[in-house]
Structures are given as C-alpha cells and as structure tokens.
Amino acid sequence: MRPSPAGDRAWAAGVAVLGGSILVVAGLILLELGGESVLAWRRLGLLRFLVGTDWDPVQDKFGALPFVYGTLVTSAVAILAAVPVSVGLALFLSEMGPKQLRRPVAFAIEVLAAIPSVIFGLWGLFVMVPWLRSTVEPALQRTLGFLPLFRGPTIGLGYLAAGLILAIMILPTIASVTIEVLKTVPLPLKEGALALGATRWEAIRMTVLPYARPGIVGAALLGLGRALGETMAVTMVIGNSPDIHASLFAPGYSLPAVIANEFAEATGDLHVSALAALGLVLFGITVLLNAFAQLLLKTVSRGFQRRPG
Amino acid sequence: MKKLALCSLLLLASTARAAPILITGAGATFPFPLYSKWFSEYNKLYPDIRFNYQSIGSGGGIQQFTNGTVDFGATDAPMTPEELAKAPDVVHIPTVLGAVVVTYNAPFPALRLTPDLLASIYLGKITRWNDPALAKANPGVQFPDLPVTVVRRSDGSGTTYVFTDYLGKVSKEWKERVGTAKSVSWPVGLGGKGNEGVTGLIKQTPGAIGYVELAYANQNKLPLTVLQNRDGNFVAPSLESTSAAAAGVAIPADYRVSLTDPAGANAYPIASFTYLLVHKDAKDQAKGDAIVKFLWWAVHQGQALAGPLDYAPLPKAVVTMVEKTIQGLQVQGKPVPLASSR
C-alpha cells in the first residue's frame, strides 16, 4: 500500500479531536456546575456549606455534610462487602473451580451487571429491607451491639441497606475485572511455586495475589466509582433523611439521591444553586478518590517488580 | 411539466390547510392521567388539534411556561410572587381538585385524627400508637404497642406543599419550625420517592403512617384516615368532600388560594386546586384560539370525565367564575368567540 501522508494527518487530527473531546466535556460539566452554584457559594460560604448539617429549603439553610457522609458511608460498606466476595469468586472461577462451571457463572455475573438499578432498588425495598429489619439487624445488634455502628431501632432502611444494595450492584464490575486480571498471571510463576512444594492456597497467596494486587485495587476503585454515583437504588432504601448517625441502621441520605429528588421541583434560586453545589461536591469527591487511586496503584505496583498486563 | 408543478403546489397548499395544530404543554404529574384523557377525547372531537403534554413536575411546568418553550403550563401549587414577576401575563385556570389523604399500616380498621394529633405525629411528639391522645380520639379502638413510623415524600412535590400548608394552618409550632414548601426539613420520618415510594414504605413497615394523593390511595385501596375539619366534623376523604372544600373558601379572581382547612360541615380539610397556566393574550392565532376553546370544554364537558379517574370536579360556583376568566382571555388582543355557556 502506498503511504498517504495526507490521510495519516487527517487520521491523527480526527483522533486528537475525539480524544480531546473528553476533556472538553469534563471541562463544560465543571464550568456549568460552577456557574450554577456560584450563588450558593457566595450566599452560604464555602466552609459553612461543606460542614453545615442543616438542609432546610424553607428557610434557605443548606449544608452538605449529611449527604457527603451518607455517600461515603454507603460506598465504604459496599466496598467492604463486595471486594472479598468478588475476589473469592474470581479466584474460584480462574484457579479452583471446575472448568464446566466457569462459563455459566461468568454469564450470571454479566446478567447481574445488566439489571437496571431501579430493579435492584425495588428488590431491596420489598425483599432485602424486611429481611434486614426482622433478621439481620436484630442479630447484629445481639452480637455486635456494643459497637455504636449497630445500635438504635432496626427499621431496615438506612445506610446498611443502601451499602448492601450497592455491594450487589458493584460486585459484577469488580469480579469480572478481577477475573481478567487473574488471567494475566504468568503460568510459570504458579508452576514454580507448586514445584517448590507450595500447596494450592500457598501458591495463590504467594504468587497470584501479589501479582494481581494492582489490578484488584483498580477493579475495586471502578466499583467504588459506580457506588458513589448510584442514585435510584440508593434513594429507595436509604430512608432519605438528611441526618448524620453513627449507627448503620439509621436512615441517611446521599448526594446523588438528594439531587435527583429535589432538583425537578426546587423552588427558589438558592435551592437550585445549592443542589448544583452538591453536584460539584460529588464531582470533587470522585476526582479526589481517583487521584488517590492512582497513588495507591503506584504504591502497590512497586511492591511487585513486573508490571501486569 | 407545468401541470405537475401546479398539481404539487395545490397538494402542498391543501396539506398546509389541513395541518394539525400541535399544542405543547408541560408540568404537574398529579393531573396527568386526567389531562391525557381530556386531550385524547378532545382530539376525537376536533381531529386537527393535537396536544403534547410532558408531565415533568409543577416546577418544571412553571419554568418552561415562563421561558416560552411550551404553549401552556400546569401546576399544583399556585405560582409564587417571584415566579409571577417573571411571567406577568400568566392566568391560572383551576381544572379539578385533588386531596391529600393520610394512610397507615396498623392492625385496626379505622383511624380518626384531629388536626392537633396529625401535627403532633409529624412533629415527632406522638411516637407510639398506644399514646393516650390517640385513644381519646378513637373510642373503642384497640391500639397496639407499636412505634409510629412517619413516612413522607423525599422528592419535591405539590402533594408535600398542600400537606405542609395544612399543617402550618392548624399548628403554630409547625408553621414556625418547619413551614410550607415542596421540600421541607422534616422533624422525623423516612422519605419515599413519589406516591408509590411512600406507599411502598408504609406497606413494608408495621406501624407506619404517611400521606399520598386521594386518587392514588383510591386506586390502590389504601386505608384512609378520617380527619376532623374546621367545623369539628370528622370527614372521610372522598370526591364530594374534596369538592366541598372549594365551596367553603372565598376564591380570589386569580384563583391563587389555599383550600386547606376550609369552612363547611362536609369539607375535607386537605384539598387543593390544580391549575393550567395560559397567557392572558396569546400571540399565536391558531394555537391561542384552540387553547381557549379547549379550556371552555374542559370546565364543562371535561368535568364529567374527572370523577371516574378519582379527581374531584369543580363546584358550580367555581365553574361560573372560571367561565368569566376564560371569556376574558384574548388572542392577539381580541377575545375568542365561544359557544354559549351551558
């Protein structure tokens, strides 16, 4: 084929435009949110808005803390519940389980990922919440009730319910990425460990997991990204009360949920502006966590010489 | 060739004449089922007039109407003075009435509440069903030893506006501590999204109490609380008692009035109008004409369609008032000729 510098240049320019467009979109979002929220920052004050705990549209008092707290707590519960299960699932499928089982289980994970979030929310409200209220929460209270995390009335709706729904929703993401990561572990590494007399578990612990660790952390952060932004399923089971409670049984609220709930019928410019400011806060949290993730990835990759993939 | 051109020109002209008038509107979700019925029935009578209504919520309806992106708006709560300032030529046309009812999940067949009791429950002062104050208002009812779980809307909504408007009228403490709005800072309770979310939470939680629209409660056969009205009578929510609420209030010429806590022996105390928003003087001849004629139809023939869909029709006195308002609407500075009043 004859080289065509003109075509090459056009191609390069086209790709550059497509690549640059993501920066433009992110910039526009930031600009729009910033513009919309100027009024809130000016009238309420940056610090007072961020650490304020009142949310009262009637008296024009707006504080973001209950929503930030709810978002972080539910996402933390989700990660803590989903990562061990996902990694175990991935190890079983790629290392231990019978080959015939891998395809159906992998298919089931993909199906789980395709369920719309409103379905998760409905299932959570009608199946999981009653179960939490009547069985799980009383049991936790009996055994771990000395911790402030598991105190108070058990109504089912709250941080715990939202966190567990999120855990189920981010499980497919984390599990399927982890499976792909485990596939990249070189066979000679495992064979070497086994040849040295390691048991299967020891081989996994000493070669597979360290090699895959950066990838697993990356998978968890992908899941976290979804958990932070999930709206529909969370609002259906979190209780929608802008309060801060130490107990996981108590009702709370999250950033995306309050924006979705109140934006359509927000009256008053300050209310709309405060909701846009919440959007900016959510944006900020996501950016911070991503930066933290990059840092974490660098640290864990250094622990193992060879880069995966 | 010339003939062909002439033919196609004629064809174009004829299609232009028969082109349907498409009228767009946006706003409240509460009257949406009734409005879609009205629009489809009206379209059967006048096939060249088509309506496109987006039920995006009252706030969105007001905003789109003010920005001029739709031909008419719809809202449950009347526009505020600030909103009016941005749309000075708006006219509120009440179409039907809705009511907010209190429903519950507890093992007794009927519940009677006084305004005080309802406010106390929503202020978080009555926390258990076996509170002596509840027993006093309900002689003969065996109340269980259950916590009262208060449920309310989490999304901004006209239903919340009407409910908090009522509580603000009957309780001074509510007015000072919480106030009236589409979203408020609730002293207690769990938030559900939409009527269905509130109903879901109530059905899920033994001992729960919450508020939903009458139409929704009727269609889902929810237990209804009987409320004491201003005249001291205990009134069950129904279409008749809702319509009676509008008869007990002096209605101003712009219809921007709260119907909660009205006078009247049989008036249900938590009722409200729902409105269409139109221009006092429409700019587009064809569309303006069609809207005014449709409004005329809606407050006459349209009212008969309200009951079967669980909306309370306007009382006679209000219809007479609205007739005058519609006759006062103009298109390009001229009134629209209307069929004689029935």
Key structural traits:
heterodimer; A: 309 residues; mainly alpha; 2 strands; B: 342 residues; elongated
Explain what this protein looks like in three dimensions:
The complex is a heterodimer of chains A (309) and B (342). Chain A has a single domain, classed as Orthogonal Bundle (MetI-like fold). Helices cover 76% and strands 1% of the residues of chain A. Chain A is built from eleven helices and two strands; from the N terminus they run H-H-E-E-H-H-H-H-H-H-H-H-H. In chain A, strands 1-2 form a two-stranded antiparallel ribbon. The longest helix of chain A is centred in the N-terminal third of the chain and has 40 residues, at 5-44. Chain A is globular, with a radius of gyration of 23 Å. With 342 residues, chain B is α/β, with parallel strands linked by helices. Chain B has an eight-stranded mixed beta sheet with strand order 2-1-3-11-4-8-6-7. A three-stranded mixed beta sheet of chain B has the order 5-9-10. In chain B, strands 12-13-14 form a three-stranded mixed beta sheet, with helices on one face. Chain B is elongated. Classes of the chains: A mainly alpha (309), B alpha/beta (342). The interface between A and B is medium-sized, with 35 and 34 residues.
Q: Helix count of chain A?
A: 11
* Distance N to C terminus of chain B: 55 Å
Number of helices of chain B: 13
Strand order of the largest sheet of chain A: 1-2
Written as H for each helix and E for each strand, in order along the chain, the element string of chain B is HEHEHEHEEHHEHHEHEHEEHEEHHEE
- What is the tally of beta strands of chain B? 14
As for the number of domains of chain A, it is: 1
Q: What letter string, H or E per element, gives the SSE order of chain A?
A: HHEEHHHHHHHHH
